[in-house]
Amino acid sequence: MTAKNNLYIVTGESYKLNKTVRDLKESIQNAELNVTEYHTMPSAEELKAVCAEYPFLSDKRLVILRDCKVLYASGNAEEAKKIALQLDIMPDSTALVLCCTEPPDKRRTLYKKIAKAGTVREFPQPSPSDCSFFVQKQAKALGARISAKTAQFLVSLVGCDYYALENEVNKLSVYSGSDEITHQHLLECASKTLEYNVFEIHKLFAGLKAQAAYKLLSDILMHERPEALIGLVARKIRDMYKIRTMRDAGFDMFRIEAQMKMKSFAVKMLYDECDRFSADQLRDGLKALADLDYQIKSGRKDAALALHETLCRIYGLS
Question: How many CA atoms lie within 13 A of 100 on its CB side?
Fold first, then answer.
């Protein structure tokens, strides 16, 4: 950090935000004496006093506001103005980092001054391709390897979450013996999101594999609340119902894709699966899931057995 660049605003995705703060802290000599970190917003007067202090056995000291509420539209505008005025008299030996867990109000004087004189780092939520690249980079750093295709599959299992992906790559690196992480390794030990497991349950029931579906369902209910599972299954059935009604109304695939606002392959898959169901059957399925949700929440039915029975009925296996 230099005297001309000692002001920071860091906002957006939490993994990248925290890594940026961690890197800044590691750049400070004698950090235990020269880093002040606030997890709740201090007053402008307290912040002024802290920023005026000089470093001990270091050329820099670091002041971090973990959640700078005065930069939000709902935050205290007067406090933000006071802090903005203090920036002009803050010693060059102090670096000030304002973290925003919510989008900052870029119209505020405080934001504009730091954007002009310092650095603003905005981290958007990652895309699947960002996460795939992250997985490959993490594996390489651990001395392991993973192909782009396998990395993409891991993202589909875990979701676009850097923290979860970092944990999975660490685990898979050990599991693979710091060698190549394969598709089979992922199937054997990678954690899977509830969304992915619901997709697998849907495939099993749609493929008339009731026994395998029941086993997976029972495994999931050991770790997940039934309401969340019912909600995701209902969303899948609802999407099929929408597509079935549009098919019956004579919509072509292009128009259905536009209405569903989903990727083409996902619409095509649901479109084909609708062959086994009428619109009335899918609507009745949604009603059955809503009734099941009530029955489980009221303690009238066992979640695992009742959900399996309901899904068998919806998918035509009973």
Answer: 24
DSSP assigned state of 56: S
Alpha-carbon distance of 85 to 277, in angstroms, equals 66
- Give the SS3 label for residue 107: coil
Query: Which domains, from first to last, does the chain contain?
Result: 7-123 (3.40.50.300), 128-189 (1.10.8.60), 194-314 (1.20.272.10)
Q: Name the H helices within 142-193.
A: 148-158, 162-175, 183-189
The DSSP secondary-structure symbol of 5 reads: S
pTM of the predicted protein model? 0.68
CA distance 165 to 224: 20
Tens-digit pLDDT profile for residues 187-231: 898 888 888 888 888 888 888 887 888 888 888 888 888 888 888
Please report which helix (H) or strand (E) contains residue 94, including its range: strand 94-100
